[in-house]
Specification:
The structure is a homodimer of 354-residue chains.
Chain A: H1 7-14, H2 18-25, H3 33-46, H4 52-59, E1 64-69, H5 75-90, E2 94-99, H6 104-112, E3 121-124, H7 132-138, E4 144-147, E5 156-160, H8 162-175, E6 181-185, H9 191-206, E7 216-218, H10 223-234, E8 242-245, H11 248-260, E9 270-272, E10 289-291, H12 294-310, E11 318-321, E12 324-326
Parallel strand pairs in A: 1-2, 1-3, 3-4, 4-5, 5-11, 6-7, 6-8, 8-9
Antiparallel strand pairs in A: 10-12
Helix pairs in contact in A: 1-2, 1-3, 2-3, 5-12, 8-9, 10-11
Chain B binds a DNA duplex (16 and 16 nucleotides) through helix 2 and helix 4.
Chain lengths: 354, 354
DNA sequence: TTGTAGGCGTTATCAT
DNA sequence: ATGATAACGCCTACAA
């Protein structure tokens, strides 16, 4: 279609061989200062840009990594990608983005069609509950790191401490005097959802509170789902007096439902979420939550992937990053004179909060 | 490092030539049914995946497009990417993502180092106010489409109707009886910021309201900036009674500032933003705004890029998509009995609203 | 220090 | 219908 300048062009113009140009370009030590300068000058003059595909072909390294994830339109994932992107950029890697729209079939289709030979490694947050399509890829030996939504497959994984985050969130609600705590969870078959559920249950058990199955609702991750789940809870004869939501979006849905029923959030009814989406401090009352280290998760996943890529043998590693309980108005009883912009942090988590 | 199955392997195992395998794989009509089936079976058996780099090299088409944009961590851009991604996926293209962090130097560095020969086309939302680095790329003939943040360079562009959106937003405030309308704008030198500013000014002029320079503040795009700008406005002797913000984040910052000063939003003081971030209907009072067709912008930019890629000669095209005024509580005077979840839409824009 | 030749995985152009 | 062979742009022995 159109012609890009190649090392051949440069070689021809300079009356040298392509290998000389290639060497000059890569700063190998066996080129004369003189030729190197001539080459570099021509490169500028003609606007030469290396063809990474060709380079990848000949070296067996593409300097591309793939990211496969459910969504990018939420705070958590877009922040993770930002973390990945920064690390990749610093290491001279490009990112190829695959969005599954949280559709298992699409994830499988994407991985089936994946040209793994044009990727040096893959980062995956899966929306599937079966893993053959992933195993098929890893079995070829290509480095792969799971983040956030992991699975039972062995391999490197980077995630937040879902269990302890959920445990602490629930304990916090209990400490505020709420005794009838419900959980609006994500879909079943997702490991991190399961971990948060277990953390919630264990916290109740620790405090000798009963675990009631009708106070646990599984549905999707959206605000809409949170709203519906909450309305369902409020229709029960024996209503809960607090909700721990699997994420902030569902927690916000819960708050919307509570507001529509004129229930005083924070006083009559406690709400806490998970993620620390910036919207938490925009909504009124401000939403308590467990902050996830999204950017860190991106960075560490990417670094781990590079370790895999660069070492011959690299043992799979699992990294679990702690969350931070962030207490705001939605779960604080006996609050006095709070304004919307106020932000409370529990003493033990005073350090770095977004 | 590790060996991926190639057509050579398949050819060897089947005792046919590589060209036969290549043909069978591409469903050309000059292969026997029999060989095709044998090949397809081997492909499954060995788990062959084509190497897109190699294919790209030989065809001169990589099936990769690059996206260069300032951020992905906001509603607008992440939604645009989703639109792009869907279109690209349907057309068998992969997306390579470059995030500039709104840093002109980084954008320039990225474009300087871009391996354009391994890209079939580029989508750009620039954060720069000079354009040599872009011109250098387009001068090579590679298809490029600007979206959202465009520039004076000729070429294809896809953007929302910033001027009319701003004009309508301002007119709406005026229609609600606000007469002292300020504008908290983005940084200077950004075309879309400028368009919104002019729309605002023209609306004032149309209604014979004075344009006061001390009621126009230029700063960044963040909530923080919106908060600071607003506090600055509130310190003026002659305070405004309404704000049109260049985007929703700044509008939300404005609301935070107003709340901290105990000013009744919607009654005493009107606020309207631009984007229609979902947070608009989460914040209380709900924020009026101009909805941008983010997903559409992504889809259309991508389609336009493909037209460029596929046709020999394709004339640059500029597409301007209309926004929709969405009226909520933050700009509605004399509201009665509104609840937080309510959503008002002006009659003339009743059609499709998020 | 420089040049030559072969190869990376694939497609395309000829032959056969 | 199938097989050689060259080519895509680059790198890397090996040779000079």
């Amino acid at each position: 279609m159109y012609h890009f300048v190649t090392i051949k062009d440069i070689a021809r113009e300079l009356n040298v061989s392509v290998s000389t140009v290639s060497r000059a370009l890569r700063d190998t030590f066996d080129v004369s200062q003189e030729t190197r300068e001539k080459v570099l000058q021509k490169v500028n003059e003609l606007g030469y840009k290396p063809n990474l595909n060709a380079r990848g072909l000949s070296q067996g390294k593409t300097h591309n990594i793939g990211i496969i994830l459910p969504f990018i339109t939420n705070y958590y994932f877009s922040t993770v990608i930002t973390g990945i992107q920064n690390t990749a950029y610093q290491n001279g890697y490009n990112i190829i983005l695959f969005v599954t729209n949280d559709d298992p079939e699409r994830e499988i289709a994407i991985m089936k069609n994946l040209s793994i030979s044009s990727l040096d490694g893959i980062l995956v947050s899966t929306c599937c509950s079966s893993y053959e399509h992933i195993q098929e890829v890893t079995s070829k030996g290509i480095p792969l790191v799971f983040f956030d939504r992991t699975g039972p497959l062995k391999g490197s994984k980077v995630m937040q401490d879902d269990y302890n985050g959920a445990y602490e969130a629930t304990c916090h609600l209990i400490s505020q005097g709420y005794t009838k705590i419900a959980h609006i969870a994500g879909p079943r078959n997702q490991l991190f959802t399961e971990n948060r559920l277990v953390g919630y249950k264990d916290a109740l058990a620790t405090h000798l509170l009963p675990v009631r199955e009708d106070w646990i609702i599984h549905s999707g991750f959206s605000q809409q789902h949170g709203e519906e789940d909450t309305l369902q809870l409020l229709r029960l004869e024996d209503k809960p007096d607090a909700i721990f939501a699997v994420n902030d979006r569902k927690a916000i849905g819960a708050m919307m439902a509570l507001k529509s029923q004129k229930i005083a959030i924070g006083k009559e009814f406690g709400v806490i979420g998970f993620t620390n989406d910036p919207v938490c401090s925009i909504i009124s009352p401000a939403l308590s939550t467990v902050a996830e280290p999204a950017c860190e998760i991106g960075r560490i996943s990417c670094e781990l992937l590079f370790s895999h890529i660069n070492r011959k043998h690299f043992e799979p590693k699992e990294v679990v990053l702690p969350g931070k309980l962030i207490i705001r108005e939605s779960s604080l009883r006996d609050q006095k004179g709070l304004t919307t912009t106020s932000k409370w942090i529990s003493p033990q988590n005073m350090s770095t909060v977004l």
